[in-house]
Structures are given as C-alpha cells and as structure tokens.
Specification:
Elements (H helix, E strand, L loop, with lengths): L11 H23 L17 E5 L9 E2 L10 E7 L1 E2 L3 E5 L5 E5 L10 E5 L2 E8 L14 E3 L12 E7 L13 E4 L1
Antiparallel strand pairs: 1-5, 2-4, 3-10, 6-9, 6-11, 7-8, 8-10
Length: about 180
Amino acid sequence: MPAPTQPPRGPARPRRRALAALLLLLAHAGAQQAGAATQASFRVSASVTQGCLVSQAAPGSGNDFGRLDFGRHPSSTSGTISARLLPNDAITLDCTPGVKLRMTVDGGQHLDGGLRHLGAGQARLAYRLYRDAGLSQEIPVGASVPIDYSDAGAIALPINAALRLPGNQTAGRYHDRLTVTLSW
C-alpha cells in the first residue's frame, strides 16, 4: 500500500491561503453590492386652471338653466308682473374661486325693436330682463353682464324679469326661448 501523501510544504500553502482570502474578500464585496441602495428623485406636479364647469346631475335632464314663469292671468289684467329665473336643479354651475364670470342673454325668438317679446301666434307681449330683484339693473340684449357670487360651488344666474299686461291682451299661451352665454 502506498503511503498517504501529505500536502507539500513550502510555497504552495501560502498561495492557497491567499486565494482563499481573495475569494472570501470578493464574496463579501459582492454581497455588499447586491444589497446596495441607490437614490434618485422624480418630479410631481399639478396645474389647477381657472374656469367654470356647467354639469348635469343626470343625462337627459336637458340643458335649460331654468325657466321664467309670469304665471296665468285673465286677459283683462293690467299692470306689471315680475318673475325670477327658477333654476333647473339638475344643472349646476361651479367656478374656481375668484373667476370673473360674465353672461350675455340673446334677444330670444321674438326680438322686435330691441325688445324681447313673448309670442302666441301673431300676438306679442314685451318683457325686460334685470339682474336684480328690484328691477333697476336691466340686462340689454347681447350685453356682457357680470355675475357676482359668494359661493363658487353654488352659482345662480341673476335673472329677473318684468312684463306689462295692457288689460286687453289676446288669450293664448305666450312663450319665448332665450340663450345664455357664459364667459370667464
């Protein structure tokens, strides 16, 4: 039987120790790099633009801001009748706080001589629009009128109206349709 061999003595042993130490050092360095953290940043931004939003609570609820209704009166009635725009609750108007909101109202379907009229066939009744309940600040046809508001989330159009019944008006259902244009 051959005699067991012993590892050679001399220069080979320090080389093995150096190689083992190098491998241990590389393994340790690799472990540090694998768990290393890198930091970077990114930008976050948002823009809030000034403006207004007209929205409907339910699809198909119409695009009418509301209605002016002077009521029902006998043809013999004479005098001035007033009305306020009754808002359509299905439509809301919201603006960014501080927006300068303006409206224009056209002459309607029966404009004549610069005056808006309700019509029933060929019969007419002239009426005027005002931006105040006291009927002192008229809204001229096509004029840009400021809308003042205190709650940007609950804006109501300031439209009031007055018509004068002459006391001998032809009976009928009088109507008109006005278009409001909002700008900001």
